[in-house]
């Protein structure tokens, strides 16, 4: 499957962003998005979606080192 992927790494102060291409198997970081207590700048996210028009959106799930969930895990799911 070819396409563009837009990925987010959830955090309470900053949200990491990366753009990837399935056809080339490459990805590169984009500038992080500031967050206010885990709430992202939705206007900026909307701009990224319009600019890159991804085929898929990926949100990283914050887990503990042993793979168990933590309080931040539920917030990322929402």
Automatic annotation (TrEMBL):
Keywords per UniProt? Cytoplasm, Hydrolase, Nuclease, Ribosome biogenesis
State the name under which the record lists this protein: Putative Holliday junction resolvase
Gene3D superfamilies given in the database record: YqgF/RNase H-like domain
* Hydrolase found in the keyword field: yes
Q: Which InterPro entries match?
A: RNaseH-like_sf, YqgF, YqgF/RNaseH-like_dom, YqgF/RNaseH-like_dom_sf
| GO cellular component labels | cytosol
Residues covered by the YqgF/RNase H-like domain: 3-76
Note the superkingdom of the native organism.
Answer: Bacteria
Q: Name one GO biological process term.
A: rRNA 5'-end processing
Q: Which GO terms describe its molecular function?
A: hydrolase activity; nuclease activity
Question: Which residues are in coiled coils?
Answer: none
* SUPFAM superfamilies per record: Ribonuclease H-like
Source organism per UniProt? Salmonella enterica subsp. enterica serovar Alachua str. R6-377
């Amino acid at each position: 499957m070819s396409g563009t992927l837009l990925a987010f790494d959830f955090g309470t102060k900053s949200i990491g962003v990366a753009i990837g291409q399935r056809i080339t198997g490459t990805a590169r970081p984009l500038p992080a998005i500031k967050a206010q207590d885990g709430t992202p700048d939705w206007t900026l996210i909307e701009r990224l979606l319009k600019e890159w028009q991804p085929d898929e959106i990926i949100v990283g799930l914050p887990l503990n080192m042993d793979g168990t969930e933590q309080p931040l895990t539920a917030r990322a799911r929402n």
